[in-house]
C-alpha cells in the first residue's frame, strides 16, 4: 500500500469540486485517532482529485496523532517535553486561498522544517519518512504549495495554498 502511494507521485485522476470539511471528516473516520479530536473551521470547496486529497488528509492526521501526543495509544511517547495527553487537530481556511491542518502537539523545530517533506526523513524510530513526502507530492500534483510553520497552540501547522 505504501509503495503504491509513493509511486502515485504527481499523478492525478479527474479533479472535481470537493468540500474540505466533508472530506476531512470522512478521512477522520478511517484513521486510528485514539483520543485525538478534530475541529473543522472550513467551509471551502476546492477543485481536487478526491482520492489524492483523501491521502493528504489521512497522512497529515496520522502524522499529528503519532507525533503530537503523549498518549501511549498514539505512539507519541517519543516526543520529549510534550505534556499533551491527546492532540487536537484543526482544518481551517487560509484567507488568501488555501487551507491548513494544524495541531496542538510539540510542533516541528524550525531547523527540521526544510527536511520534513524529504522522502525517508523521520524523527520516529519506527517511522518510514514517506507520509509528509507523499503530502508534498499530492500538493504539487494539484499545482498547489505546502509549507510548515507553528500553529497558534505551538504545534505544527501545514499550510496548503491552492
Q: Would you kindly provide a written description of the structure presented here, covering whatever features stand out?
A:
The chain has a 5-stranded mixed beta sheet. It is globular and about 35 Å long. α2 packs across α3 (50-68) and α3 (50-68) runs antiparallel to α4 (131-141). Helices cover 30% and strands 23% of the residues. The longest helix has 19 residues, at 50-68. It is built from 4 helices and 7 strands. It is an alpha+beta fold and 162 residues long. The protein has helices at 2-8, 20-30, 50-68, 131-141, and strands spanning 16-19, 37-41, 45-48, 88-94, 98-103, 145-150, 156-161.
- What fraction strand? 15-25%
Helix/strand class? alpha+beta
Question: If strands are numbered along the chain, what order do they take across the biggest sheet?
Answer: 2-4-5-7-6
- Helix amount: 25-40%
SSE ordering: HEHEEHEEHEE
Ranges where pLDDT stays below 50 over 5 or more residues in a row are 1-6, 71-83
Summed over residues and divided by their number, the pLDDT gives a mean of: 85
**Whole-number radius of gyration?**
15 Å
Give the termini separation. 27 Å
Strand count, sense and barrel status of the largest sheet are:
5 strands, mixed
**Overall geometric form:** globular
Amino acid at each position: 500500500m505504501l509503495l503504491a502511494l509513493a509511486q502515485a507521485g504527481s499523478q492525478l485522476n479527474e479533479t472535481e469540486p470537493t468540500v474540505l470539511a466533508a472530506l476531512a471528516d470522512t478521512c477522520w473516520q478511517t484513521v486510528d485517532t485514539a483520543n485525538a479530536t478534530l475541529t473543522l473551521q472550513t467551509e471551502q470547496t476546492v477543485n481536487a482529485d478526491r482520492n489524492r486529497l483523501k491521502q493528504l488528509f489521512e497522512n497529515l492526521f496520522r502524522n499529528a496523532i503519532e507525533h503530537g501526543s503523549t498518549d501511549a495509544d498514539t505512539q507519541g511517547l517519543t516526543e520529549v517535553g510534550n505534556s499533551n495527553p491527546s492532540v487536537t487537530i484543526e482544518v481551517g481556511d487560509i484567507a488568501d486561498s488555501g487551507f491548513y491542518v494544524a495541531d496542538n502537539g510539540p510542533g516541528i523545530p524550525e531547523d527540521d522544517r526544510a527536511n520534513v517533506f524529504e522522502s525517508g526523513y523521520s524523527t520516529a524510530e519506527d517511522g518510514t519518512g514517506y507520509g509528509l513526502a507523499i503530502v508534498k507530492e499530492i500538493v504539487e500534483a494539484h499545482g498547489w504549495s505546502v509549507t510548515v510553520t507553528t500553529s497558534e497552540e505551538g504545534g505544527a501547522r501545514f499550510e496548503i495554498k491552492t
